[in-house]
Amino acid sequence: MLRFSLIVAVCENFGIGIKGDLPWRLKSELKYFSSTTKRVRDPSKRNVVIMGRKTYFGVPASKRPLPERLNIVLSTTLNPTELPADVLLYPNLESAMKFLETDKDIKQQIETVWIVGGSGVYAEAMASARCHRLYLTKIHATFDCDTFFPSIPNDFKEVDLDPETPKGIQEENNIQYEYKILEKQQV
Annotated catalytic sites, by residue? Predict the structure, then answer.
């Protein structure tokens, strides 16, 4: 069974977005997201980013699809012609994961699968037996948000940071934040 990890930045009230955009401007946190979701140990492979329709279209047009990663959009309302040819469309997370597991060519190319939003996709992902880790940027401030990260289930426990993850409190634009990694405990 192919597993995945989630990556998200949340503020104190667990907000993750406002009007289809991020509520904060933290360039170094965006760089962390980009480098983490692109990082591969095997240079012949690449990673997958899976996101909902609103998250995909919330990415600035000049930055999508997210480069150097296989982009998969989850939607039951989009038509494949509304996306670039190299972006895959699936109706739900499980169907996308089944494709990644069963397509031999794709399966050999993939190293890590990342779930990158939004809230409904995150909720479905955390409930899945496929869920491995949650890479959480905890922003120590409250922002006005209209989209929120779901409650983190009790079976997620904090683990040591990856060597590439900055440790301790970070600060940018007078906003403090820190990186955490939680791992889903398998029953």
Answer: 22, 29
